[in-house]
Every structure is written in C-alpha cells, then in structure tokens.
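From the thread on structure requests for the teaching lab: each student submitted one protein with a one-line request. Submission from student K.M.:

"Model Arginine biosynthesis bifunctional protein ArgJ, mitochondrial from Candolleomyces aberdarensis, tokens only."
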Amino acid sequence: MSSSHVVKRLASTFTQRPSPPKGHLHFPQPSSTFPKGYVLTGLHAGVKKVAEKLDVAVILSTPPDGKPTAAAACFTRNAFKAAPVLVSNDILKRNGGYVRGVVVNSGCANAVTGKQGMEDAWAMVRETDALLPASASTEGGKKFEHETLVMSTGVIGQTLPISKILSGIQASKSTLSSDFSAWERAAKAFMTTDTFPKLRSRVFTVGGVEYRLAGMDKGAGMIHPDMGPASTSFSTPKQLHATLLGCIMTDAAVTPRSLQSALMYAVDRSFNSISVDGEMSTNDSIYLLANGAAAPQNSVPIDEETDPERYEVFKKELTDFAADLAKLVVRDGEGATKFVTVTVKGAPSYKDAHSVASRISTSALVKTALYGEDANWGRILAATGSVPLSPSLTTGEPTVIDPTKVSVTIVPADGTAPLPVLVNGEPENVDEDRAKEIMTQEDFELLVDLGGLGDGEAQYWTCDFSYEYVSINGDYRS
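Reply posted by the TA:
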C-alpha cells in the first residue's frame, strides 16, 4: 500500500480541510509594466508527460543598443549542487557578471547526474546562445564564450531527455515575444507541483527615471532556501546562513558588482526567509538581469560605491519585489491551508532574529498546530529556546534569553485586536475561542518579542503541514 493511501486511511477519522483556492493569485498585468528589451516564451518540449504542460522557458535580453546585460545570482549552499547550478556559476565567474540569456526546464532537476548532467547543462547553454542576436557584448575587449544561464527543476537523480529539450529550445525562436502572454508562458514552464504561475511586474522610479521590474518564480515543496552569491570576484561573503527557482529582470542600468550586492541583500530578506517544509534543494537559484534598456542615453549605471543614493532606492525596490515573489511560493505550499508570518523582535541582531524565526517556521510541531488551528504557544517557545544566539559584543559571553521577558502574541490579519498569550514570561488567561477564531483565518502572524536583547528584528513566512502535503510527497515520483 502506498504512503498516500496510508495517509488517506489515517486521515479519514479526522476533519480535513482542502487547500484554499489559489487561482486569484495569478492575473493579467499591463504590458507597460514589464521591462523593455526582453523577449521570452514557454513551450512543451516533452520533458513532462502531459502535452498541455509547458516545460521549457527561454528568456533573452535584447536591448536596442546591444549593450552588455549585467547579471547576478544566488545559488543553493547544498553540497549536492545540481549541474545547472555549477554551470551557471562558472559562466558568471568567467564573464564577470554579464549574460544575455536564461533557459529553464521543469520536470527533471538534472541533479546528482554525474558527467552526463554537466554535459546536458552545457548543451542547453550552447543551444540558447545560438538564439542570441549578434552583439558587441564584451567586457575589457574580450568576447564572452557563453552568455546563457541555465536552470532545471523536478525529480532528482534522473538524466534529462536532452534531445527533446534541445529541439524545444530551437523551436522557441518562433514564439519569442515581449507581451504579457509570453511572460505568462515562461512562468508556466517553471512549474512542477505549483498550482498557478507566479508572475509579477512593477514600475518604479530612481533619480527621476522610470524603470520596470518583472519576475517569475516557482516552488511549492522542498522549500527552505539558503542561497549565497555567485562566485564572481566582487561577491560579498555570506550574511546569513520541489525546488525554488526565480528569475527577475529590470531595464535599469546597474553595475554587476552592485547588482550582486543588491540581490544578496534582497534574497536574505525574501527567498532566504521562507519555508514550506524545511528542506533545502540541490537546485535553488535566483537570477537577476539588468539590461539598461530604459536608462537615458550616456547615463551612468547605478553603483553602490559611486552613487549610493540611487543604489539604495534600487535595492529597496528590488527587496520589496523579491518578497512579493517569495510569498507566492509559501501561499502555494504543497497542501498548505495557512499563510503565517513569523516576526521575531528584540533580538541581539538581525541574524539572531532571522535564526529564531527560521526555527519556529520549520518546527513540525508548530506547523501541525497551525493546521489544527490550535494556539499551542508552548511549541513556539520550545522552538525559540533551542536557537543559540550570538555572543555579546561587549563581554564576549553567550547571549541567553531571559524567559521572564519574552512575550508571544497572535496577530490577526483582519485588523482586529491582537491576542497576547504570553506577556513577560507569564501565561495569559487565553480566550481559546478567540484564538481559534484568529487561527481559522488563512492569514495571521505569530509575534515573538525576546524582551529587549537588542534591536534585531526579522520576518519569516511559512505555512502549515496538512495531510495533503504527506500525500503529495509520498508518491511524488509516480
């Protein structure tokens, strides 16, 4: 008997709630909000068994003046990095942060596939390179050998049907476009167990100039990213400790070093701050392209060192946008019925607050209580107290949580009064009916105040564990 059948039999004696409908999270967006200078598409190449399901996406940067496109990336820290992660990191390192194409396949992760996996990833790069228009895309007078990054997602340990994928890449040329339908097709080609394509766009202003951001991502299971910067010479060191893939494009002009710095900051506060099931993938990757297609002629690219004011505005816009994309992944978590914001404040540092929020968000006991709509705040405290905090900057001694100063509050999303369940270490006389009322809502917040150990504050976004999650993952390969 399969695991999903066992789960269904065990669950039959309990009240089950289906995942809430999610179709409203995908909607048409005006073509004017998408960045200039990109063409893209999605198609069915035969990786997935069902012909109606798209499985290959191609994204090309084609700015009108043929200028180089800056690129940045954050990759999984998993030791078993998939072939597309290794290949893309190599290309960014060789090119110093410049590429013009991205190719994505879903249905097979091309992870733990040995030499054949590497050869297949390089073949996808070469085939997409061939679609790029002739360009003076050089840096220091040197021609780039490869200008395409690659992504794969799906089952681990299986090799790609590479001939089908290469044929699909060749065929994509006839449907490349820049309108909403093209962006939508590309977003659909990212999907595995996702229930809707995750696509967003926005217009923003830096220094009086209007630019655009657009991006797509995928993920519903195997979601607890811990991504670090690509291995370019200007990469910053690590700031923090189904697969998540994402690609963001902008028509602003940004230097590669500043693009990488902004992306790492944004990812730490978005994609590195979500969890569906606490499982880090071998393929997690986020790419960011900036082609400067909307930048005024002869303008200077945004740069962190030479133009910090414009850079900070761009970094904030990127971080907010990345958070919007990341939250869609949690909302589409496999079997999820709740979207829960975990906020931790009063920590010694942002890193400490982030670590505590991560631990709460990945606790199986907390997540099952969320599904059961049970205000079992003791589980939140147990998770909180298991995280070692940074040593004191003044004494060097380990920072220890004082249980008599910790407070926990359940905060409804509808604007009604929050419900304190623990105040300065003292349990409140909790109105269980009110707690249940809040936790039956699809959205709410768990707020943990560590009692003034510092001004560190961070948020994590997570969901509950349901019977459906076990059922989906019990029979994932079949």
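TA comment: The domain at 29-331 is CATH 3.60.70.12 (L-amino peptidase D-ALA esterase/amidase). Residues 237-241 have pLDDT under 50 and may be disordered.
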